[in-house]
Amino acid sequence: MLTAQTEQDSRIKASEAQRQQSYFCPSCREQVILKRGTRMIAHFAHRAHSTCRPFSESESQAHLVGKWQLAEYFGVSNVELEPYIQTLAQRPDLLLKRNDRQLAVEYQCSSIPISRLQQRNQGYSSYGLSVLWILGENYLQKMVSVRHAEKWLQYSERLGWYLIFWQTRQQCLIIWHHLSLDGVGNFRGWAKTSNGNQYNQQNQMSVKAIEKHIQRQIQYGLYYRIPKWLKLQQFCYEHHGLLQDIPAICYQFKDAEPLICESPIIWAALMTVSLAEKPVGSLIKQLDLEKWAAKISIYFEGAQLIQCTTQQLVDSWGRQLMQYVRLLVQHGCLKVLSKKSWQLVAIPH
Ligand SMILES: [Zn+2]
């Protein structure tokens, strides 16, 4: 940690501390050790085998440096460094204060179990405090697919699905925003940095390449009898379809919301298998689509989107369904009757 309590019970930064003085942890009150050298950022550490909960996680140099830089980035006068919230026994890395609003900032460099993350978020929320999670740059390389990012994804009207990182070398924030999934379930979207760079993050795979990738996955999954793929195949059988015969139209289903840890094409394929059971001419209502989506949801591993509200998730699923409907309308499979009903005019193939 970058700060500790003095004997007079005031807060002091490690960079301003004196070697001959005693300093204490604000949580467990144990004496802490001042660590200051030429190759490390000044900080305080507990003695070995300390059982102090909120402060015991060993902090890497990268974490300490990043935390310090973030405090400077947000403006030292607006920031409280490592404030200890006694009622929660929690200590955010920073507390941002703007006007009368406060925002806890957590800077995460190491991995954290989902249960702990949830616990911390619930703590802040019970305290009426919003929290912003900023990820260390070591996360940047890992965040290829939704599976690695699911618990960090946040949603806002302005940024869509987004992730925020801090780069210690460049000393800037990177915001990945308007994230969606491509045909194989990897992220697409935009990135901007706090020093003004903007770039596109689309590693465009051709429809042909995506089709090949998906078909290979299915063949492999069925050949080696991987339960997930066998279950998907079973669903298709029960609905008079074949997993290998994904209608061509489904390969166009991309830029999907990051709601499942799977290629959105497979999701579209199961929806289409359900739809194709209806005779041509049938009335299709939004309720039908919702019913099918709910039914197939058990075949997919849902993303653990714990940083957003239930309403945001409901809205996101709504957008996903409408995106699927638009695709069918564009390809002449559905005819629009009203805002929430369509006529099946051709079976997707
Ligand atoms: Zn302690």
TrEMBL record:
InterPro entries: CoiA-like_N, CoiA_nuc, Competence-induced_CoiA
Every Competence protein CoiA-like N-terminal domain range: 9-53
Residues of the Competence protein CoiA nuclease-like domain: 59-180
Stretches of the chain forming a coiled coil according to its record: none
Source organism, top-level taxon: Bacteria
Protein name (record): Competence protein CoiA
Organism (species): Secundilactobacillus mixtipabuli
Lineage, highest ranks first: Bacteria, Bacillati, Bacillota, Bacilli, Lactobacillales
